[in-house]
Design brief:
By secondary structure, this protein is an all-alpha fold. The protein has helices spanning about 5-15, 25-40, 45-60, 65-80, 85-95, 100-110, 115-130, 135-145, 150-165, 165-180, 185-195, 200-215, 220-230, 235-250. It has a domain at about 15-80: Alpha Horseshoe (Serine Threonine Protein Phosphatase 5, Tetratricopeptide repeat).
Length: about 250
Amino acid sequence: MFASPAAAQNMDLQWKICPHQGDEYTAAQQVAACTEIIEASNQTTPDRAIAYYDRGIAYSNMGDVDRAIADYGRSLELNPRYSDAYLNRGNLYYERRDYTQAISDYNEAIRTDPLNFRAFVGRGNAYDDSGNPARAIADYGEAIRISPANPGARFNRAVTYDRQGQHSLAVADMNIAIRGDPQHASYYFERGYAYEHLSKTSLALADYDKAIQLNSGYAKAYYRRSLVHRAMGKTALADADLARAKAIDPSVAD
């Protein structure tokens, strides 16, 4: 049985709205479009898996995490090899600090697509936050191997290196991350923090300056710069930076 031209045209419109990632349609409109696709009798199983996945994204954007997780699960029932559905569900579990479930989903995302570098980054984050920095560093390294041009994994590994006292390695990663994205304030902050621990005060100060130039509301950068100024005997500048940091975030020095 073939759909009428009007019905086919309507379904084409729903397929335009359902996966849309711009601002043209609201998340609620995307949910409605995806639902129409899911409930249509003429859609294939792979297409319904995609529609559930896209509706999961829309629900997530609406803040309805439970429904998003449920839709990713339905998508995976229809297509057990849908790597990005595992990835997205893992990300939601990670945000809930359910690291065990997040790691399980990231494992499946990697099993179904060994080149899914975002799954390695996600699993690295979950390992890091659950107290396993060695595994986190290994996963960030694998993400970097797969996608060397992506600066995010470099940044995450640098943060972990810093916490492990491996500040020179952190600087090396941040140098590459900054070359890949020179407008990211957090990258300069992280390198400045590593320089601070290496007693390279002038370099730390320059990076905190750059972080603040890129993000004038960066409370942590003002606070760390205040500490550098104080260590350099520049009390007035230190006091001014500390006051600015606390005006932005009163808890920044806690």
